[in-house]
Design a protein that fits this description.
This protein is 50% helix and 4% strand. The chain is mainly alpha-helical. The structure holds flavin-adenine dinucleotide (FAD).
C-alpha cells in the first residue's frame, strides 16, 4: 500500500517508510516491554495544581482525570524508605495527590545509587527538589481520553503556541524556532492520537475504543501535524541514541535482579540495534543548529521559551493530563539537554549527567511517540477512508 507521506521527514535524515518499518519491527516492541519494567513504570512528580499564571479552575475533579498514586507497598523494594516496608496495600485509593504519599526527600540518594541529583536547564521545575513529590505507576494511569476540554484546555494550548512559539509557518522563523514549534506540535499530535485511540465511546456502558473521526479531525486532516509527529519521534530517538553509552551504563537497580537484568538488556537492544543503525543511523542532525554569531543568544531565548512551556504544565487543570504533560515535557527537555547542553556545544564543557526521572521521562515519551506513529501508520488509512470515502 502506498505511503501517504513519502520522502524524507523534513529536517531529519530518514524517510517515512523507514521510520514506520523500524518502529513496527524494532522500536515499538522493545519500548512496550521497557516501560513495563519496575524501573521505568514509576514516575516521580509534583501533582498539585500550582499554576503561576491562572487560578485553579476546578477541572481536577473530572472522574477520568484522577491519577492513581502508588501506595508505598507497591514500590520496588529498593525504592522504599528503610523503616516503612510492607505497608498493607488496601489503603490504595485512586484519587488526587495526598500529602501522605509525599516522598521522603532523602529517598533518591539512598535508593537510586549511581544516579545524580541534577537540574534540567530546559525545564521550569527544579528536578532536585523532592518535596511534595508523589510516585505514580504509569501503567495504572494511561494517557487517554479524560473529558478535559473547553476553555481550560484551550487556553493552555493557546498560551503554548501564541505566547511561547509563534505560529508556523512563518517564513521569518529561524531553523531553531521552527524546531521548537515542531516539537510542541508533534507532542500535541501525539496527545490527540492517544485520546483518539483510547476514547470513552459510551459513558452509560463505559465502553472504550478507537475514535477514528477524532484522529482525522484533529490530526490527519492537517498533514503538517502528522509530519511534526514523525519529526518529534526522530528528534527524541536521536537524543536517546546520542546518549547511548551513558544510558547503557546507567544503574537500573530496583532490587529485583530478574527484572533489572531485563531492563538492562531491553535498553541495550534499543540503543545498539543493528537494524536501526543500518536504516537510520542519524535520525536528526543536531550539529546543524546554533551556528553563526547569534547562536548562543538564540539558544538562551529558546531555552527560556521552553521553560515557559514547562511552567504551563502546572496549569493543566486535569490531573492525569498534567501528569502526562509534565512527563512528556520533561522528556522533551531531556532530549534538548542531551542534544544541546553537553559536550562543549554550549561552550560549558559539561559532560552528560541525567537524573533517573529524566531517563524515565525520556523513554516513556519515546514510547508514547512510537505508539502514536504506529497508530497513524496502521489506522490512518482506515480513518481517511471512513471520512473521505476513499
Ligand atoms: P485542542 O487539541 O485543544 O487544540 C487547540 C488548537 O490547537 C486547535 O484548534 C488547533 O488550532 C491547534 N492544534 C491542534 N493540534 C495541533 C497540532 N498537532 N499542531 C499544531 N497546532 C495544533 N485530554 C484528554 O482527554 N486526555 C489527555 O491525556 C490530555 N492531555 C492533555 C495534556 C495537555 C498538556 C493539555 C494542554 C491538554 C490535554 N488534554 C487531554 C486536552 C486535549 O489536548 C484537548 O485540548 C481537548 O481534547 C480539546 O480539544 P480541541 O479539539 O479543542 O483541540
Amino acid at each position: 500500500q502506498e505511503h501517504r507521506y513519502s520522502g524524507i521527514v523534513e529536517d531529519c535524515c530518514c524517510d517515512y517508510e523507514t521510520v514506520d518499518h523500524l518502529n513496527v519491527e524494532v522500536l515499538h516492541p522493545s519500548l512496550q516491554e521497557l516501560v513495563k519494567t519496575p524501573f521505568f513504570r514509576y514516575f516521580k512528580v509534583k501533582l498539585w495544581c500550582n499554576c503561576p499564571f491562572w487560578p485553579d479552575d476546578g477541572m481536577c475533579r473530572l472522574r477520568d482525570c484522577s491519577v492513581c498514586e502508588c501506595p508505598e507497598s507497591e514500590f520496588p523494594e529498593s525504592f522504599k524508605k528503610p523503616y516503612h516496608r510492607g505497608l498493607p496495600s488496601d489503603d490504595f485509593k485512586c484519587q488526587e495527590g495526598k500529602p501522605q504519599a509525599a516522598v521522603d526527600r532523602t529517598l533518591d540518594s539512598k535508593a537510586f545509587r549511581g544516579w545524580t541529583e541534577t537540574d534540567n536547564p530546559w525545564t521550569y521545575d527544579d528536578e532536585t527538589d523532592n518535596s511534595e513529590m508523589t510516585y505514580v505507576n504509569l501503567q495504572l494511569n494511561p494517557e487517554r481520553y479524560t473529558g478535559y476540554t473547553g476553555p481550560s484546555a484551550r487556553r493552555i494550548w493557546d498560551a503554548v503556541y501564541s505566547e511561547n512559539c509563534p505560529k508556523y509557518p512563518a517564513e521569518e522563523l529561524c531553523q531553531e524556532e521552527k524546531i521548537l514549534y515542531k516539537l510542541i506540535s508533534g507532542l500535541h499530535s501525539s496527545i490527540s492520537i492517544h485520546i483518539a485511540s483510547d476514547y470513552l465511546l459510551d459513558e452509560a456502558t463505559n465502553l472504550w475504543g478507537h475514535n477514528l473521526k477524532l484522529m482525522y479531525d484533529r490530526v490527519l486532516r492537517y498533514p503538517n501535524r502528522v509530519e511534526n509527529l514523525y519529526f518529534t519521534f526522530l528528534f527524541v530517538l536521536r537524543a536517546v541514541t546520542k546518549a547511548a553509552d551513558y544510558l547503557e551504563q546507567a544503574e537500573y537497580d530496583t532490587g529485583n535482579p530478574t527484572e533489572d537484568l531485563k531492563t538492562q538488556s531491553l535498553m541495550r537492544q534499543l540503543l545498539y540495534n543493528p537494524k536501526l543503525q543500518a536504516a537510520c543511523p542519524l535520525p536528526f542532525d543536531e550539529a546543524k543548529l546554533w551556528k553563526g554569531q547569534k547562536g548562543p543568544e538564540l539558544k538562551q531565548k529558546i531555552q527560556a521559551q521552553f521553560k515557559n512551556i514547562s511552567a504551563l504544565m502546572d496549569c493543566v487543570g486535569c490531573e492525569k493530563c498534567r501528569l502526562w504533560g509534565k512527563l512528556q515535557v520533561l522528556g522533551l527537555g531531556t532530549a534538548l539537554k542531551i542534544l544541546f547542553s553537553v559536550n562543549g556545544e554550549d561552550h560549558s564543557g559539561q559532560t552528560l549527567q541525567l537524573q533517573r526521572n529524566e531517563v524515565i521521562a525520556l523513554m516513556n515519551l519515546l514510547n508514547r511517540l512510537s505508539e502514536s506513529v504506529k497508530f497513524v501508520h496502521e489506522m490512518g488509512p482506515a480513518a481517511e477512508k471512513l471520512i473521505e470515502g476513499k
